[in-house]
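Anyone opening a protein record will find just a pair of labelled lines. A complete record is shown below as an example.
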Amino acid sequence: MELNMVTRIWHGATPATKSDEYLTLMRTVAIPDYRSTPGNKGAYALRRVEGDTAHFLMVTFWESEDAIRVFAGDDISVAKYYDFDKNFLLKQSRVPRITRCMKGKTLKRGGLEGSNVSHLTLTHDRPTKLFALRGAMHR
């Protein structure tokens, strides 16, 4: 099976004291929203607490950039925010990282130097487990 998909990774940070509540909102609002979008192949919220700050990564897998547009709007390089984000995030980053990946190969996209698009090689058939940020994974 040839795997060809787009991975979108967003980073945000909250005060550590608000991170449990924010993670609950990510689990109950954001992740179901991602997963209900046609073309979404998975959505994961990861959290790492460092001192007074909690860092979050939203890692989402998509069948195409067009599927991301259905979720995020025409400009997929701009992050989508929820109404509750302004009450938690220390700042709002506009640019998620977008990566195209294929099983066992790196798919290079010409003319994107200096952009937020990078390369990734995925070596298994399905992104079923992510072990990062001290092993904290929330599906």
